[in-house]
Design goal:
Strand content: 5-15%
Structural class: mainly alpha
Shape: elongated
Helix content: 25-40%
Oligomer: single chain
Largest sheet: 2 strands, antiparallel
Number of strands: 2
Number of helices: 3
Order of helices and strands: EEHHH
């Protein structure tokens, strides 16, 4: 995103490019404008390089950071039900079940 444009790349979806000044409601995707897209692509690549971001997929990131995920790439969320019950008691202003 720049001050005048929104440009987003996705791994599995169509890319988007909008001129936010001329099209504030983002109704006209300009991704087919090769010159404009190339300019923003170069800016994005330079920014990703400065950030040391290799634009890795979700599965690669999960493996890189040691996060266990299922075949859909979703991590198994586990929580202690007693902790959750106690939290909701406090939210509702109830007394604690444990002394």
């Amino acid at each position: 995103m720049t001050k005048t444009h929104t440009y987003a790349r996705f791994k599995k979806e169509p890319w988007i490019l909008y001129d936010d000044a001329a099209d504030p409601y983002q109704m006209n995707n300009l991704v087919g404008d090769d010159k404009l897209r190339q300019s923003l692509e170069e800016q994005l690549d330079a920014w990703l390089a400065r950030m040391e971001d290799d634009f890795a997929s979700d599965m690669v990131l999960a493996e890189r950071y040691g996060i266990t995920v299922d075949e859909r790439g979703i991590p198994p969320y586990r929580y202690d039900q007693n902790v959750m019950r106690e939290m909701w008691r406090r939210v509702r202003g109830e007394r604690s079940a444990t002394p």
